[in-house]
């Protein structure tokens, strides 16, 4: 089964595509995409002219990070993240699980520019790879600046101890798994007073490149920061993230994209490499 564009994707698309909202809604409601078969990633670009960047774009994501090919950039600064406690909504849009914030939950400062945290969602297995290694899960923290540009902080996870954030919303994830979505619907579970303060741990190392959204419309010029520290997640938590999803989207990772001459840069504090 393929999945129609959800409100979550539509909300981002409306900010990025230069067309009228009514026309865009009508067209998007008629489009389905998925991760297998005739609606899979290799076909996304042909599903709609709105998705042309998925096949024609030259700055697409995700990518493989080859450590001995990255360039250390001494002009990059530490990522400054200041998050707080806020109400959120846990959403199953059929192809991933996400947390969406209606109020101001915090700010990322990247290259001297402020980006507000809007949502975070998970992909399993990971979309980005390091030296070809794919990890069990990847979290995308999506931030938006006042000028409409996006910056995504990516966190990779390996199997081990339970992730603190997912532990906090375990009951809500279990509740979400009971909901059944139609192709063009979402399941929503409110999450009250979610504390995201622990997500702003000091960043000693990250990889930086300019890429795209990893789902249609695959819009480019997204600033990516992939944290160098791999965090831990339990197998039970990965299963909880996959349980509510359609059977064709339990593995919701877009294949690797070509760099096409792009350079991946490295920020590392003295002593890290």
UniProtKB/TrEMBL annotation:
It comes from the Eukaryota. Residues 31-268 form the Alpha-carbonic anhydrase domain. It is an enzyme of class 4 (lyase). Transmembrane segments: none annotated. CDD domains: alpha_CA_prokaryotic_like (cd03124). Gene3D superfamilies: Alpha carbonic anhydrase (3.10.200.10). Its cofactor is Zn(2+). Residues 1-21 form the signal peptide. It catalyses: hydrogencarbonate + H(+) = CO2 + H2O. InterPro entries: Alpha_CA_prokaryot-like, CA_dom, CA_dom_sf, Carbonic_anhydrase_a-class, Carbonic_anhydrase_a-class_CS. The keyword Zinc applies. One of its GO terms (biological process) is one-carbon metabolic process. GO terms for cellular component: chloroplast stroma. It holds the Pfam family Carb_anhydrase. It is found in: Plastid, Chloroplast stroma. Keywords: Lyase, Metal-binding, Signal, Zinc. GO terms for molecular function: carbonate dehydratase activity; zinc ion binding. Its EC number is 4.2.1.1. Its main location: plastid. Reversible hydration of carbon dioxide. Belongs to the alpha-class carbonic anhydrase family. Belongs to the alpha-carbonic anhydrase family. PANTHER family: ALPHA CARBONIC ANHYDRASE 1, CHLOROPLASTIC (PTHR18952:SF236), CARBONIC ANHYDRASE (PTHR18952). This is Carbonic anhydrase. The gene is LOC115952543.
């Amino acid at each position: 089964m393929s999945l129609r564009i959800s409100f979550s994707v539509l909300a981002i698309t409306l900010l990025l595509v230069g067309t009228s909202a009514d026309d865009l809604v009508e067209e998007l409601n008629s489009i389905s995409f998925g991760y297998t078969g005739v609606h899979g990633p290799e076909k996304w670009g042909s599903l709609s002219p709105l998705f042309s960047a998925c096949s024609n774009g030259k700055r697409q994501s995700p990518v493989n990070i080859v450590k001995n090919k990255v360039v250390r950039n001494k002009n990059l600064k530490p990522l400054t993240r200041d998050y707080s406690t806020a109400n959120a909504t846990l959403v199953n849009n059929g192809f991933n699980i996400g947390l969406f914030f209606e109020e101001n939950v915090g700010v990322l400062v990247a290259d001297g520019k402020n980006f507000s945290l809007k949502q975070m969602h998970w992909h399993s297995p990971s979309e980005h790879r390091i030296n070809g290694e794919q990890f069990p899960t990847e979290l995308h923290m999506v931030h938006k600046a006042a000028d409409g540009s996006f910056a995504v902080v990516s966190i990779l996870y390996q199997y081990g101890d339970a992730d603190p954030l997912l532990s906090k919303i375990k009951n809500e994830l279990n509740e979400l798994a009971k909901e059944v979505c139609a192709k063009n619907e979402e399941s929503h579970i409110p999450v009250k007073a979610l504390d995201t303060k622990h997500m702003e741990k000091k960043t000693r190392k990250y990889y930086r490149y300019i890429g795209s959204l990893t789902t249609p419309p695959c819009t480019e010029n997204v600033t990516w920061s992939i944290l160098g520290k791999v965090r831990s997640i339990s197998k039970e938590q990965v299963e909880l993230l996959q349980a509510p999803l359609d059977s064709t989207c339990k593995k919701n990772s877009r294949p690797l994209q070509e760099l096409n001459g792009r350079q991946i840069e490295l920020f590392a504090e003295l002593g890290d490499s």
